[in-house]
Amino acid sequence: MTDNPEEIKKHVKVYITVFAALAFLTVLTVAASYLKLPLVPAILVALFIASLKAGLVAGFFMHLLSEKQVIISILAVTVFFFVVLMLLPALSSSSLYVS
Amino acid sequence: MSEKQHSHDLPFWRKYIFSLDHKVIGIQYGITGLLFLFFGFCLMMLMRWQLAYPGQPLPVIGNLFSERMMVGGIMLPEFYNQLGAMHGTIMVFLGVVPLAVGGFGNYLVPLQIGAPDMAFPKLNMMSYWVYFLGGVAMIASFFLPEGAAQSGWTSYPPLANIAASGQTVWLIGMVFLITSSLLGSINFIVTIVQLRAEGLSFFRLPFFVWAQFVTSFLLLLAFPPLEAAGVLQLMDRLAGTSFFMPSGLVVAGKALEVSGGGNPLLWQHLFWFLAHPEVYVLILPAMGIVAEVFATNTRKPIYGYKSMVCSVIFLGFMSFIVWAHHMFLTGMSAKMSSFFQITTMIISIPSVILLTALALSLWGGSIRFSTPMLFAIAFLPMFGIGGLTGLPLGLAASDIHLHDTYYVIGHFHYVVAPGTIFALFAGVYHWYPKVTGRKMSEILGKIHFFLSIVLINGVFMPMFILGLAGVSRRLYDQMQFAHAQPTQPLNVFMSVCAWLLGLAQIPFIINIFGSLIWGKKVDNNPWEATTLEWAAPSPPPHGNFDAVPEVYRGPYEYSVPGQKHDFWPQNMAKEN
Amino acid sequence: MSDNGIRYISKPHPVTGVTNSKLGIWCFLASEVMLFGGLFSAYVLLRASAPSWPHGSDLLNVPLATLNTLVLITSSVTMVMAWASLALKDFSKYKRYMAATILLALVFLAVKSVEYAHKFEHHHFPSTNTFYAIYFTLTGLHGLHVLGGVVVNTYFLFPGSALWKKDPEQFKGRIECAGLYWHFVDLVWIFLFPVLYLL
Amino acid sequence: MQKYYGWGLPYNASAYGADVDRLIYLLHGFMILLFVGWLIFLVVALFKFRSRPGHQATYKPDHFKAPTYIEVGVALFEAFLLIGFSFPIAKHVRTLPPKGEALEVRVVAEQFAWNIHYPGPDGVFGKTDIQLMVPANPVGLDRNDPAAKDDITVINQLHVPVNKPVIVHLSSKDVIHSFFLPVMRVKQDVIPGQNVPVWFQAKDTGNFEIACAQLCGLGHYRMRGFLIVEQPEQFAAWQAKYAPKVPAPAPVQTPASPVTVAKE
After folding, report:
1. B363 contacts D45? CB cut-off 8 A
2. Which of B471, B382, B346, B385 is nearest to D28 (CA)?
């Protein structure tokens, strides 16, 4: 992390804008829920907004955008297994089960 | 004040009990792991009595137990189920993993990569004591009014949900053990990535360090889902939720007052999502040890080091998508079972590559039949049988008949008992000189080996015959079933072999403690090996190396043409 | 170089470019991703196999939860500001931002306990139905993580800050790791909030 | 009495059991062949390259290409077993015979007994209700339902006609059991909250066994049932003998303890 003050001051401005974006997105996702969309679109909208917010927090607050390769590769491995874990319910859904 | 003096004036309890030195913690893990292995072995020996002579009173020891366990020396089904569940849990989570990863990993990884200690010493100490608490919880559960957990080491709900209080203590113990393995794996990954010596690139690492590296990733990423499942089951048992309880359950004639809507398969999925990577956690360090012992005792480099490293990494990834081959019979459709059959066949390929590479490493060597080498050589055919018997269980068609029978018990015990535990014996004999500065006796070692190899096959080989006959596992008394009566005499043979196997460990115990006194004193490299741990004095002081060692070549440079000696240590600049 | 010779504690490794503690905290967060992943996959499986699943907004107080989300996001910002002020060598600003983070976290926990108390009054316990069960389990475990974060941050505000004088570089690294953990906890809530309250 | 059980695979009384047995024997032949060949290599290598004076290990011995061919051969043979044998058998086992031809039976597993429920001549299962599940009526059959008039409920006695496909609908009242017929090469986990069908077709008559293969508590070892395969006439006679005598509407006994199932 570059340590010179001007760099950090620029970062601070970025943090404030990111904060505003997060607040706005929160209000947006709540507003979206009042539209009472059918289940599947509602899930997609909510997850899309949540991923956007997560991306902002991870990218700027957690400095993932400027992170080193070793940490990115560990996270890539984790994402691979997280996806398998999230597929687990799909694998055991009733369609694949004889009952 | 250099580090060496600093460690001398530490009070006893800071130097040995709450020590921050990875070597002391490694020895603590090793001794506790060996004690739990022995304790789990005794539980098994009790079970073997009931299996061989169902319903007959246990002669002497029988009257030591309370009325809830044995009535007049005759074991009750509750106690038998407790022994079964706790034997599995203790051997896997409290015996082999702490010994293979906590003991060997903690002691050797920093030494083999030329680091003074693990990256986070306090975290390392904490992971041992959290493991210790988990072990205490597991043992304490035996003294509960209704005894320890008794629904198998897999503790499937709804049986586990309606079980007695021992199951709750088992879950709490498991949460402790999982947290300990988690913290341990973080320590390993950071140490291996950050603290490697100068010039020690990833492809110059000894294969043992690679095995521990992949094992740490398995521990890091596979354990948390089981912790989540454990939290869910704790909520089921304590807060009355019903994650795993479907609606409309009637237990002992009375409808169960639970909100229902749960799915017992959720636990099985989350449990096996961990448990398959867990079995690779059990076998990979063992393969690492065998590779080290092979290289040193064949005086030549391992065959296909790069292909072995790639197989280990591929194994690590594949182990996460095969878990449902434990659940072929839970009503899954042909489509789903086909997927998991294919992934199970694919995962058998890296294991075959690893085994073949180790076997081919013998070709062209100059093999010394020292005790560690004997155990390591025995690992190959034994793990071979374990792997091969996995084939009929991996194919859904043959698994229908063989699932949940003694065939399965024979399969996984062949992988773990003559497989992993023999490799751990090889490791103890191989690195004992480095840990204590004295060599273990070869005579006692060979007695221990030849007795154990014969008896261990006597215990597990007949299990395949029982399995083919369709004898279900976890049966308190198989004489109740006509299809199981003809194979009952085999149980007597197996039980006798098991008790003799217990006696066969006495030379090993004498050897371990005796060699501390009369073992032959050795210098820092008694086996004339090349990896870095043999460059440090034995036993290495706190901080291991005077200066960070410099590495010039691969880990197994033996019999290099044009060298005086037949071994060329990694850290030696000029020829040797 | 610390006392027993372990390198790269406060200075990054020349090749990997990260310090030990940062790599360690990211590994820990990877395991936390799998922990909450396990619970989320349990949620998905239970919801998929349940005949009927109540709407989150009918049973739970959405406005209060929205406020709670904003509180947690603000605490995330004050946390990163605390780290930034350390980078600017401004120790007093750091203490104020860290105090703000802890305060906001306590507000979050307070709102959570109000919500729980409200539910218990109306006899909505985890054992009522699977929705409440997974709601209490997920938010309960998340709450415990928030509590853990508060304890760690309080340590860094009072006794831990002595390290600032001895080795500012290492202290800044520690605050960065505490920050990473805190942002992760906020990240989990960002997914928890829509999944439980809005769908 | 013909000996059904011994060491090794039990007697095969199932129409499609021969395929499963052939796969198991083929696999074991392949495994023994592989293991013996591999062991010979090991012993030869150990003897040939044992350390002895004058013998020097070679740094890079010239390795013959055999191992890679063997590995590929093993992988191909495994794939052949998988696609050639396992998939067809697994698919055959999973596809139920057409409803019309098969005898349908409901087996409700309970801690330590198999409750068997026949639809009776009308071929329709009566309604069941967990309120009525008392020891006298383990399946919880509601006798007022017209379809339940002729239903037969028996414990641990599964009578089946020979040479006729039988579909068994498995469900459990409490914990996970596993419905295991060794002679029929059939095993199916019985998950509470699910109703999983499994089918088999007996080719020989005889008294066989039902076993429980999944740990289900203290009595797991004595959860034994009988599978009696008999000629259709004897089966019909047995059904007639067990049909409920006087179709008096069974008084709806209030279950012993007033039990409320929590609302959904």
Report:
1. yes
2. B385
